[in-house]
Amino acid sequence: MSSRRSRSRHAGSSRITDDQINDLVSKLQQLLPEMHNRRSDKKSATKVLQETCNYIRSLHREVDDLSERLSELLENADTTQADLIRSLIMQ
Amino acid sequence: MMASLMSSSNPAANPDRSSTRRKKKKIHHNPQIQPETPKIQWKSDAQQQIYSSKLLHALQQVRLGSSGSETSSAPRRVRDAAYGALAATARGRTRWSRAILTSRLKLKFMKKNNIAKRQRKVMTVITGAGYQPRRKSKVAVLRLKSKCLPAFQRKARVLSRLIPGCRKQPVPVVLEETADYIAALQMQVRAMSALAELLTGSGASSSSSTQLS
């Protein structure tokens, strides 16, 4: 129902081309974690956006979990100086 | 760290004002014209190291500075430190990073001036009666629009709310910011996981301390 033509008409005043948007969407698609990233050119832009939203939410959750874990580890760690030196040397 | 944050997010704050006016058309410190957005390679090890060291410094401050007066929890402080360090690593090139840095500055400012915060609250209460009808009609109009918008636009709006500082941005801007934001988040997860592994591993053998030698 919502074709690509109508989308460009909505954004008509700002002269945004469909190609520009498609480029950006395909760039996003490559960042998404899928089984076979390169193969799926068939994803619709809306699907890509949906998966992007889900992915960002899951990344936020992951960061929250890691923050929890790190806060516990930092609480229990005996020295801060040792953390710092060790981590910098390891990397 | 605050100084480096401020200088990276606010390049116009030059100590020498006359030179800023002379170099009005030129960006930052270089006399040549720089390209607008040299992109950060979030995948590179170098960036991850830069981020990790910023994160470590921020976390040290979280540990040392935690007092009874802080109302937020420890994981919350770690999370804020992580996002703050991430935004700083972005060097102010992207909207989302600038939005994070700005909100942190605002928070610091407001914490120091609690009086200003209370005044602001009082003002909103007083003017609340005047604003509310306008707000209600705006919400009603937005709801109507969301039913008429094609799915793509709707998803783009949702996405723009997820990315910091992109609520009112047009779709191409949102997509650009999203790509950078995702790459940055992926790096953040890698760095924080690596740090957690390090601390887990070292915590188990902290008494033996064989690693430094």
TrEMBL record, chain A:
Gene Ontology biological process terms from the UniProt entry: regulation of DNA-templated transcription; regulation of growth
Q: What is the lineage of its organism?
A: Eukaryota, Viridiplantae, Streptophyta, Embryophyta, Tracheophyta
- Which UniProt keyword terms apply here? Coiled coil, Growth regulation, Nucleus, Transcription, Transcription regulation
Q: State the protein's name.
A: BHLH domain-containing protein
GO-annotated molecular function: protein dimerization activity
Q: Does the keyword Ribosomal protein apply?
A: no
The UniProt entry, under PANTHER family, shows:
TRANSCRIPTION FACTOR PRE (PTHR46446), TRANSCRIPTION FACTOR PRE3 (PTHR46446:SF3)
Q: Which GO terms describe its cellular component?
A: nucleus
* Domain BHLH as annotated: residue spans: 5-59
Subcellular location, record wording: Nucleus
Q: Which PROSITE patterns match?
A: BHLH
Superkingdom of this protein's organism: Eukaryota
Coiled-coil regions listed: 56-83
> Does the UniProt entry include the keyword Protein biosynthesis?
no
Principal localization reads nucleus
UniProtKB/TrEMBL annotation, chain B:
Location relative to the cell: Nucleus
**Residues annotated as region Disordered?**
1-44
Domain of life according to the entry: Eukaryota
Instruction: Give me the stretches of Basic residues compositional bias.
Output: 20-29
Where is there biased composition of kind Polar residues? Answer: 1-12
Sequence ranges assigned to domain IBH1-like N-terminal in this UniProt record: 46-105
Q: Please list the GO biological process terms of this entry.
A: regulation of DNA-templated transcription
Q: Which UniProt keywords apply?
A: Nucleus, Transcription, Transcription regulation
Tell me one Pfam family matched here: IBH1_N
Q: What is this protein called?
A: IBH1-like N-terminal domain-containing protein
